[in-house]
Design goal:
By secondary structure, this protein is mainly α. The chain contains 7 helices and 2 strands, in the order ααααββααα. The protein has a two-stranded antiparallel sheet with strand order 1-2. Helix 1 packs antiparallel against helix 3, helix 2 packs parallel to helix 3 and helix 5 crosses helix 6 (about 155-170).
Length: about 210
Amino acid sequence: MDGTSPRVTPWGGVELLERALGYTRGSLALVTPALEHAPSPCAGWDLRDLLAHMDDSLTSLHEAGSGRAVAVGPLSTPRRRHRSSGELVEDLRGRACTLLAEWTLDWVSDHARGNVVVGGRQITPRVLTSAGALEVAVHGWDVAATCGVDRPIPDSLASDLLLLAPRLVTPEDRPARFAPALAVADTASASRRLLAYLGRKGPARGNRPAA
């Protein structure tokens, strides 16, 4: 598809982010203290590292929504700031609500809100929030997989993200930010095809694509 379907605009923006956050909240409910050091699908990270990375990502999206420039550096192990997995989950839930309210409040148009500077590049709010939706949804799947639960990304959400993934994840992002894409049948679900594009095999623990 060329992204011109009347069902969804190519860059879903805040609406897409809201759906991704809704899915990921369900995955966060699976986290227990006993799983804090379980290996996640992200190479070298346990569950607490993954949650800290998600918190860092939402913080950056919040900073962008506040009109600040966001720096982009090499991917590294997130700073845990001495928080437990339970504390990180609560922080993520609160941050998600604040983030969505902030972006929704002033969402009139790209021109009204103005572009955001990310890594020295001008990016429209609609592209930025769509990119945030992709990361939030995929890491929501990572959390569920780390908890040993097969929790596919909803097909409608995965289908919309599949339209955007080739534009948001480039060869330069591999293998540092995303593992190489995996082969998958055309008949596979939208969730399965999206995860394969991002280098993720399935729900079993021990799968370790890059973050």
